[in-house]
Amino acid sequence: MLGPVETRSVSPVFVGRTGELGVLNDALARAAAGEPQALVIGGEAGVGKTRLVEEFATAAGRQDAVVALGGCVEIGADGLPFAPFSTALRALRQALPDELAAAAAGQEEELARLLPELGEATSSRHDEQGMARLFELTVRLLERIAAERTVVLALEDLHWADASTRHLLAYLFRTLRAGRLVVLATYRSDDIHRRHPLRPLLAELDRLRTVRRLELARFTRDEVGRQIAGILATEPDPAQVDEIFERSDGNAFFVEELAVAACDDCCTGLTDTLRDLLLVRVEKLPEPAQRVSRIVAEGGSTVEYRLLAAVARLPEDDLIEALRAAVNANILSAAPTGDGYRFRHSLVREAVADDLLPGERSRLNRRYAEALQADPTLVPADERVMRLASYWYHAHDAAKALPAVLDASVVARRRYAYSEQLRLLERAMELWDTTPEDVRSALRVRDHTAAYVPCGCDPATTPLRYLDLMAEAAVAGRFCGERERAMKIAKRALRLLEDEDDPLRAAWFWVQRSRLVQAQARGDGWQELATAQELVRGLPPSEVHAEVLAYVANWSMLHEPGPDALAAAERAVRYARMVGARETELHARLTLGGLMVDAGDTEAGLAEMRHVLEQALQEGEHVAARAYVNLPSELHSVGRAEEAVPILRDGIAFTRRFGLLEDEAWAWGNLSDSLFVLGHWGEASDAATKALTVGHSAKPESAGALRLAHLALGRGDVAEAGRQLATARAHHGIHDPMPQQWLPAARIAIGVAAAEGRLLDARAELLHALESGFPPGTQRYAWPLLLAAAIAEADARTLPAAAEGRADLLDRLSEAVRKLTTGVPVWRAYEKWTRAELLRATGEDIAETWSEVVTAFECLQRPYDLARVRFRLAQALLSEGGDHERDRAAELLRLAGAVADHLGARPLTEAVALLAQRARLTPARTPRQELGAADPVAALGLTSRERDVLRLVSAGRSNRQIAEELFISPKTASVHVSNILGKLGVSGRGEAAALAHRQGLFPAETPTSRSAG
Hints:
The chain is mainly alpha-helical and 1013 residues long. The chain is built from 50 helices and 10 strands. The strands form 3 sheets. The chain has a 5-stranded parallel β-sheet, sandwiched between helices. Helix 7 packs parallel to helix 8, helix 34 runs antiparallel to helix 35 and helix 41 packs antiparallel against helix 42.
């Protein structure tokens, strides 16, 4: 072996690029200060991108930064999945072994998909989130490594990048927010034609403000002169500079080639084509060196020495001499790892490879494949299978290529490189018909597929079928986002199945079509699911049968909840248990639990969902992520938001740990809902923003925007509410309507229209909702919508323009209220509130009506709702007149105003102030008969019983402990606590205790201990 070459450049002088190097050095300084930087450098082949990166890397190293270089790898025309990231992480592991080990702790098995040295990759389940999960863990790893040390991650030659590498780089650029990290990527701009796969990524990066793009221009004549002087070590003749500048057009690499050619006295023999220019020095080599160069050109970006020796079949001394000649001529150079060779510049490799004859190319690939198959240790273990598949494929030997390509597709799947898996499976389908039957019949389902569940056969002995490849490819396409390709494969498979009696496989493909239709926003997917359900009807239980039923139940829960959905979920659970499909069973049980809650069997449904969560966590199933989303959602739906919050926080930690971004986005959205009703609006806003930024699919983003719209409406920012509503509806589209999306959107639309004085638009939204109907189990979305419509009508009661059609509309509203379920206290409270607003819409509401509403909400942890109905009660009391009523109204306005101020609910704050001004009240004062200037507790408007309760709350007592000490029931204690929170304008027991201690309300009192007997 020859020693490693220090640099891939000929010129010892770094010329020009002052501005670009300044930008890179500025990025390094910013990163060192804790602001991560992302840059992309483009330029034509040979313009000097690699030399610029080398100079920057050297300068960064002098400033104690760790530089990790990774290049995209070509094997023939194929890229290795994640190759630049694997190479860079390997360099980081060598430079910072302890830091990388600490940053990867607990996630070694997942990260081994990129860096096999960390351990054996897990055989975890594959889904749409698999790749995103790996990406999130990778970004987090880099941020942790760069927490204390400046790191430069340089990824070269993106024009060769595989799809998985492009996706990971895009994710890194989008989500990088912390760490002393510079991410630098280069690409060859003249290769980026209109259909080049890198083009969409570059367009996306242009839209990111955090990414800076640099385009390297060609050298000026002066810079060319300085470059030639550096190469020749003497000042060149001006005429020679002019000639080289004219012929090279300022391209740095061509300047080097022309200068060296001139120095070697062969300039007169040059032709005018650049390709011939690149081949001139190769053709001057001795024949053995030319032969070795041709072998290296076809082997890939880098060829290991032992592999090269096996393919060249030269005596070792002759091989060494041939390599020495090529290295001395600056055609080849030693690889940075020191164990192989590569062309000094890829342009020369491409020229040599293009000069190969067709038969010569396939013969070289066959030699590479035979050598690697005979001795797998010739290449790194993580590259072996992929390279063997590529060599056999380009050798045009279908019998050897098909098994190798299928093995490579399995490796790609294990690494979550689903784009490469899809490409390899499409290649396998291309080879299928030309592969001999004996080779195909030796392939087994167990060895090459994981997507389709074989029913009634042994995967270890069942021969692989073409339809198995199609099933695997359809799923791979769905996982990597190539949904159009996946849809075409699924449709073709179903056409083939028309001639076969295989209803289970056909049903499975119809389920895939349903999922793809929904993912592409082309429909709700029901027709496809119904077809699958019909195909399995009457068949014996199987995994496919159970899976179909589980999808039908889940679809029904989201679109048409009710008795049919409940029955489908029960059947899915039963079938999954019969065939031992544990994951399907857990999913179906989770769906069943949610449907039970919606149907009114609250405690049994919640218990079932809790059991699923516990079992999924114990068994390591990612069903736990879905349970962490759905269980708190159902708790929230029955008015138990306080219970939902800690489960959601646990769920967010769980999903972040495993990189389950879509589930995390849903959890943030649900957390925003619960925090909103509990009165933590600042945190609710942060959670909704997280839901928008964490997830990368339309539906959780739509839900996040809806939460922000709801908050904006409560705060009085009607324009922002309208913008977020439009964003939510655009994200979700119109082809897959779900009650959990369109009902909250309609509720917001009614509120926005009413706030802007567009009563007819508000009515149109309501009428559309009433005509669509409220399926069973959707009361959690329907009650707020009906309430918003009733409030809009009540607020517009005195407007002449509202008179037309009012009576009929109110009748329809009342009918909807009468029919809607009120199975739990929160929705009974909403029923009372909505009926009170309907009475207000006709001027028939009285204080007694609103008093019942206030009483209903005082038992609930919903401070904003309580403040709003207290305001309405104050209105009614002032309308009835009397000193006692005025005192009660003043107190109610004080409490409502305190909550509104605390939350930033500007419309409610203004309404309270306006009503107090009209009634000549001061909301801040308490009723005069309860004033006690010397008693700070009484000044807060607390009764004597509430004083006792607050004293015990501030001492940390639970409701049950308070009840035992004061000889009252726990429910009564809970009511007192709710009243105290409202009067103090706080949102929780902790804040109430903190206020009591801060104001010294009980300075000399020590709470009595509970009696042991």
